[in-house]
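Figure S7 source data.
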Amino acid sequence: MKSYEVNFDGLVGPTHNYGGLSYGNVASQSNSQQSSNPKEAALQGLAKMKALMDMGFQQGVLAPQERPDVAALRRLGFAGSDAQVIQQAAKEAMPLLVASCSASSMWVANAATVSPSADTADGRVHFTAANLNCKYHRSIEHPTTSRVLGAMFADQQHFAHHAALPAVAQFGDEGAANHTRFCRAYGEAGVEFFVFGRSAFDTRYPAPQKYPARQTLEASQAVARLHGLREEGVVYAQQNPSVIDQGVFHNDVIAVGNGEVLFYHEDAFLETDKMLAELSSKLAKVGGKFQSVCVPRSAVTVDDAVRSYLFNSQLLSRPDGSMLLIVPEECRGNERVWQYLQGLTGAGGVIREVKVFDLKQSMQNGGGPACLRLRVALNETELAAVNPGVIMTAPLYESLTQWVERHYRDRMTENDLADPQLLLECRGALDELTQILKLGAVYPFQIN
Ligand code: SUG
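Tokens for the predicted N~2~-(3-carboxypropanoyl)-L-arginine complex:
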């Protein structure tokens, strides 16, 4: 049976703004308070989806969330009509209003961890929504994420959904941004690679000194248990705490994998040799031949990686077995990175081509091509069971583009977030979107 990696990209929501909300994420902090362009952000994302679809890849779309999140503000004690809630928050606690307006659900690599059916004990595709509890503005995503994923992957014969892990720091879980799957073919059993930043209970693991390590070992282990993964099909590795302190807040800022290949920076992990050996031997047991491509710090520094997002790329398999790397424009703007990429693709190795995309609006908040997509490996039968409304087609691309043109503003600053009219605009837009994507009622304003 045929099998595919389907990339579901997060559609940027109408409140996209630069709130400076993510301590430890260099771009988010340095672009704080700048004015954003939600319309351009959404169109940039849609252009990437369309381009990948046109290249023959399976592409889907994941809906944004309801923002401002008035219900979240009510839980924090703001009261009255929806407009009053927003106005009171703007007057008394602007950072809370900004957090409740973040369009951060666009970075769907953080929406969930996904294990394909070939890896799981019950032969279903498993999803665990990420609790994202390191940052308040992201911790409010998972209930709607679960409803949206449930509406996309509704068939219980093929899909199993798990609620987010307990919302405490010991189980900090950032989803697929710290999870990679290696396999010979997408439909065959593979090795799931979980990268954590710290251990909550075991003091032998060092922790970063400056910035938070968002993912814990214990969270990754819980997800592996929930999904029914075999011990032989799982490898855990610790991120190098010193790169977290340099702005690598998720492993997908310093490594990316696909098929049998891991593309990573020399400084990305602790105990790299041991980890590579384990990946290699476990992949061999399921018939795969592990390959690693290490980028030396002498060619690209960690700072270059953080600024260019070289590793926050999509590594995609082409029909001839070679691979294509989708990178953000910022890679072309960094001389060392660009030079490295020229050498890489010219060297006759597995990565043969680089394609560049302008995702500046998302990049300025620390979200590159890989952050914007959730990978779901599916066989033909499972793909046929996905809600067809969320699979990208030329007509869907047209409708979504027109929908963005109709509803999105082209400039947003903090002051705009305090405008109660924005809430009405967003709800109107999202109501229409759930019809376009055939999701049914998934947003709080639709179900309460
Ligand atoms: O969680 N930025 C996101 C970026 C997530 C990137 N995802 C992956 N690497 N997979 C974050 O830090 C910034 C929002 C603001 O500051 O307005 C933000 O949430």
